[in-house]
Amino acid sequence: MIVVATDDFELYHDVVDELRDRGVAFTTLEPGDELPDGTRVVIRSPEDGATATSPTEGSPRVETVVATAEAVRRSVEEAVSILRGGGGRTVVGVDPGIRPGIAVLAGDTIVAAFQVPLADAVETIHREIDDAPDPVVRIGDGARLQGSQLINDLDDVTVELVDETGTTPYLGTGARGMGDVLAAVNIARLSGDAIDSRQIDPTAGELQRIKDRSRRESDDGRTIDEGLARRVAAGELTVDEALETHRERDADNDAEPADDADE
Length: 263
Hints:
Elements: E1 2-5, H1 9-21, E2 26-29, E3 41-44, E4 63-66, H2 72-83, E5 90-95, E6 101-106, E7 109-115, H3 118-129, E8 136-140, H4 144-153, E9 158-162, H5 179-188, E10 193-194, H6 204-217, H7 226-233, H8 239-255
Parallel strand pairs: 1-2, 1-3, 3-4, 5-8, 8-9
Antiparallel strand pairs: 5-6, 6-7, 9-10
C-alpha cells in the first residue's frame, strides 16, 4: 500500500490526483502518524521529516519517495514501481519516425508513454531519464533517417540499436494510433548493440519522400530541392526550416536587379 503523508497542501492534492488517475490504492496520514500494516511506500515532501521505518517487526521494509511539486508524476511513478516490484534500470524504448513512439520502463513496469514530433523526442527522453541511475535508450533500426538523428543527438546517453522486426503488434478494434507506442514498449524489452553515432547516406527514394512531404506541408505547394532534402535527412534542418530557406532563396533571387542589356 502507498501512504501519502505530507503537510504540503498543494503537493498532497497533486499526488492524490495522480494516484487516482492510475487506479492505485492508497491512504493518507499526517506526517509522523503510525503507519498501517501493509505499508510499502510513503510519499512525503522534503520538509516532512525523516524516512519512515517498518510499522511492525518482520514487515517488509518501507520505502520513502520524496516528492516535489515540480516532479509529482515522476515521484508517483517511482512509488508505483516500488509497490509493484518493478524497481530496476530505467529503459526507454523508441520506435523512430516522424512522430516517434516512446515508452519508459522501470524494470518490467511501464511508467510512461508518449508519441511526440521528432523535434521534441530528445527533450522528452532527457526529461524522463533525468536523475535515473545508468539509464539506457533502445532505438529501433527502422525509419533509418529519423533513428540516426535521434542516436546522434543523444550523445550523452547509453544508446542501443535494436532489431525492431516483429515489434509492432496487431491492433484490434479501438486501438488505432497505439502501434508506435506499443512497438516502443517491445523495443525497450529487447537488448541491442551499443552505438555512439550512425551516419546514413539517404537513398534517392528517401530524399524523394522528404521532398514530397515538403510539398504536402507547405502552404503554397512548394517543393524543396535535393540539397535541402539532404540537410533534412541529416537532421540539420526540419522540413519547416527547409521550406523557409527555400522561400528566402526565391525572394533573394526575385530581388536581384536584372542585367540592363542597353548599357
